Amino acid sequence: MKLRKHVFRDIRPYICTFEFCTRSEYLFSSRQEWFEHERAVHRREWHCNACDESFTSKGTSGQHLQARHPDQRHTEVLIQQAEKAIEYAEACPLCQESFIPRRLQSHLGRHMQQIALFILPSRAFGDDSEEESQGKSSRSDAGSPENEHDLESPLAVEVMETSSRVLGQEHPSTLSSINNLASTYRKQGRWNEAERLNVQAMETGSRVLGQEHPDTLTSINNLATTYGNQGRWNEAEGLFVQVMETRKRVLGQEHPDTLTSINNLASTFWNQGRWNEAERLGVQAMETRKRVLGQEHPDTLTSMNNLAATYRNQGRWNVAEGLEVQVMETSSRVLGQEHPDTLTSMANLAATYRNQGRWNEAEGQEVQVMETRKRVLGQEHPDTLTSMNNLAFTYMSQGRRDEALATMKEVVALRSRILGADHPHTAGSISALENWRRQYDDKQ
């Protein structure tokens, strides 16, 4: 709570919401100061006690007194006495939901906090990819960690459009809002929409800020992450290498952004099956992050998780299990049991159990992850489909063919519709389903 207050005190998110206010560009230091301004200057009414009528401006109140009560003296005094703060419910200017003044202050204040946080440049959007095994096919899905403070798409679109209109399409804050909307789309599995925005932010940033500006590098990094989500790993690799080399030169080899780039390139090597290269970079990122950020930092846990995935694909399952248990327990304690990063670590541990032939333990983990993802992310989110896909592999390994076939058939249908038939994850599920059907038919 202290940190939250500190952040909002620094960024001063509160502004007058009335268009022609003389203090329209003033940033109020607190929610109370902002709303007291609006209550004192704008949210006013003039009430005629004789008629029991209210008016929204001083001028109409005066006209009423002159027309209906011409015998009244001291009109200016009466108008001053009639003025008071509005006490009835008013509509929020951002969402049109109505609240009484005290609740409107809290509700509208939260809107402004969200918008202020959302428009801030963030190096973390799209930076780290969590790896999740697909079973014996050794394919992987790049899980996209969800930020519990992410805005829903409509508000994100509104922020971007407002920034474009007020500040201009090439303003750094507008580029940040474009990047952030792309991040929201990417986390929803809307990768084509994310790609379009990523390209726009990257090209504009390169032209306006320069190719080595930190915001431009973030845009390039985010586009690479989107390419990775689409299974376009060679294109992702080229961009990640570009970002990593530039950050090493500009920021230094141990800067957190540089370590993120190293980690992302390692994840790309992992997806390409280049295990030794992935291991070398993964160890480098993990050890440096432990030293620079600490052992329980989320970025350190990400590096440990990804290195464990590499060990798993090298057949070094005991080493992988040790890292995955450590990550899962730390993530559960630090981030919470339902945080997407915790769920990814649980799924990765289940993959190691599956490779070790510990089917029952794998199934227990996978069912828990799948059910939680359905509830938290939605039934059609790509990460949820990954969980279903992995559970199908476990069912098949247990000899539960009917359940495996039914589950994988559902995964193929959903992935074909959501990711597209040409996506590597869809292709992997189709291949598994066809192989299982042939095996099943041969035994009939």
Q: Secondary-structure blueprint of this entry?
A:
Layout: H1 2-11, H2 31-41, E1 44-48, E2 53-55, H3 58-68, H4 75-82, E3 83-85, E4 90-91, E5 98-99, H5 101-119, E6 130-133, E7 140-143, H6 153-167, H7 172-187, H8 191-208, H9 214-229, H10 233-250, H11 256-271, H12 275-292, H13 298-313, H14 317-334, H15 340-355, H16 359-376, H17 382-397, H18 401-418, H19 424-442
Antiparallel strand pairs: 1-2, 1-3, 4-5, 6-7
Characterise the protein shown here.
The chain has 444 residues and is mainly alpha-helical. It has a domain of 116 residues. Helices cover 67% and strands 5% of the residues. Strands 2-1-3 form a three-stranded antiparallel sheet. A hairpin with a 4-residue loop joins strand 1 and strand 2. Helix 10 runs antiparallel to helix 11 and helix 11 packs antiparallel against helix 12. It is elongated. The chain starts with a helix and ends with a helix. About 7% of the residues have low confidence.
Tell me the strand order in the biggest sheet.
Answer: 2-1-3
What percent of the residues sit in helical stretches (DSSP H or I)? 55-70%
> Segments where pLDDT lies below 50 for 5+ residues?
121-151
Shape: elongated
Q: DSSP strand (E) fraction?
A: 5-15%
Order of helices and strands: HHEEHHEEEHEEHHHHHHHHHHHHHH
- Helix/strand/pairing category: mainly alpha
Tally the helices.
19
Structure at a glance:
With 444 residues, this protein is mainly alpha-helical.
Entry keywords:
single chain, mainly alpha, elongated, 7 strands, 444 residues, three-stranded antiparallel β-sheet
